[in-house]
């Protein structure tokens, strides 16, 4: 059975620990005191800030474009091995710019790796460039302009990511989100992951998004929930990740059922699977085993993901064929 479409997954959270060790040795980087596996994975749930510290442990590995290309390539291979029919791989390229490698080089390296991974596996995949909450408007607007110069490279979307608990506002990023659509990019935004339910409406109003990453706190306000459904918002749910960031206490507490009951469309992601140890197939199992999703509801989720994904018409048909393939096999 396919694991479905992965519409919320971070490149920085998909670095294989063995690859991290190999790349670090080649770059002359010190080995973390307890090794790369311990440096990258989480010990226990905490908060979003602590969670992002573990994700950021991989950042020094991204300074070399060839290393970045390899990490992206392996991310697609791992998604294919997990049974994923499509992967949207988001990352914050501005974080990985150096004196030797500019934004265009960084984005091109990631896109090359994703394209090579797709060619090797047959799994369609795309890059979602992320603006970052802690950066200023100039830096994020530069990131938004980069995909226009990489037209046809496989960059398909634009996101806002980062520590929402420290930088919750959306209005400062309106300029970047007005630039991205001109390059044909789909729009999404992390919201109500660490901030309150009002963050979803705020992101819709200021950024023009209709896809929201996580939205875990949206269900705390019935009116905010109703408004999101009325506006056609799609929620990218990542239940296990929300436990590790402290948004919910247990996956059984995830508001996916409340979202369904309110008429919201849902899509699934695995966020940072190296940190959480939960790839998309495990997240799909959470939906059935812990949240009571029926086969019909999973099919509904797949249909919503196919519609919401940042795909061309031809790519959408290819992904639909992958979703049908297990059922049509003898």
Write up this protein:
Belongs to the metallo-dependent hydrolases superfamily. Adenosine and AMP deaminases family. Keywords: Hydrolase, Metal-binding, Zinc. Its EC number is 3.5.4.4. With 330 residues, this protein is an alpha/beta fold. The chain has a single domain, classed as TIM Barrel. 47% of the residues lie in helices and 15% in strands. The protein contains 15 helices and 8 strands. An 8-stranded parallel β-sheet has the order 1-2-3-4-5-6-7-8. Strand 6, helix 9 and strand 7 form a beta-alpha-beta unit. The mean pLDDT is 95.
Features:
alpha/beta; 330 residues; TIM Barrel; 47% helix; globular; 8-stranded parallel β-sheet
CATH topology: TIM Barrel
Determine and state the CATH class.
Answer: Alpha Beta
H/I helix tally: 15
Strand arrangement across the biggest beta sheet: 1-2-3-4-5-6-7-8
Beta-strand percentage?
Answer: 5-15%
How many domains make up the coordinates?
Answer: 1
Number of strands: 8
Rg calculated over all Cα atoms: 18 Å
Give a quick rundown of the structure:
The protein is an alpha/beta fold. It has helices at 17-27, 36-40, 48-56, 65-81, 103-121, 137-149, 174-179, 198-207, 222-230, 239-244, 256-261, 273-276, 280-289, 295-308, 313-328; strands spanning 4-10, 84-91, 125-132, 155-161, 186-191, 211-214, 234-237, 265-268. The protein contains 15 helices and 8 strands.
């Amino acid at each position: 059975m396919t694991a479905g479409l992965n519409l919320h997954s971070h490149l920085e959270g998909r670095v294989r620990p063995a690859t991290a060790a190999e790349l670090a040795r080649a770059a002359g980087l010190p080995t973390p005191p307890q090794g790369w596996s311990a440096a990258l994975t989480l010990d226990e749930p905490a908060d979003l800030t602590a969670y992002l510290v573990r994700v950021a442990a991989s950042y020094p590995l991204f300074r070399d474009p060839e290393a970045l290309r390899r990490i992206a390539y392996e991310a697609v291979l791992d998604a294919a091995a997990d049974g994923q029919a499509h992967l949207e791989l988001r990352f914050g390229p501005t974080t990985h710019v150096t004196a030797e490698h500019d934004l265009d080089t960084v984005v091109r390296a990631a896109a090359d790796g994703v394209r090579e991974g797709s060619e090797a596996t047959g799994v369609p995949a795309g890059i979602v460039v992320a603006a970052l909450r802690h950066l200023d408007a100039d830096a994020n607007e530069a990131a938004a302009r980069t995909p226009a110069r990489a037209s046809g490279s496989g960059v398909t979307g634009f996101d806002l990511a980062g520590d929402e608990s420290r930088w919750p506002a959306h209005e400062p990023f309106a300029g970047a989100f007005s630039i991205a659509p001109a390059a044909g990019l789909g729009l999404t935004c992390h919201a109500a992951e660490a901030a309150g339910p009002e963050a979803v409406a705020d992101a819709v109003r200021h950024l023009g998004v209709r896809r929201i990453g996580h939205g875990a706190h949206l269900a705390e306000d019935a009116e905010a929930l109703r408004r999101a459904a009325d506006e056609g918002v799609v929620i990218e749910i990542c239940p296990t990740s929300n436990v590790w960031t402290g948004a919910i206490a247990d996956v059984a507490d995830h508001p996916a059922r409340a979202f369904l009951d309110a008429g919201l469309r849902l899509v699934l992601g695995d966020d940072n699977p190296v940190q959480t140890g939960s790839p998309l197939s495990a997240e799909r199992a959470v939906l059935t085993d812990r949240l009571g999703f029926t086969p019909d509801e999973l099919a509904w989720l797949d249909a919503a993901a196919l519609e919401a994904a940042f795909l061309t018409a031809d790519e959408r048909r290819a992904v639909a064929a992958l979703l049908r393939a297990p059922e049509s096999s003898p």
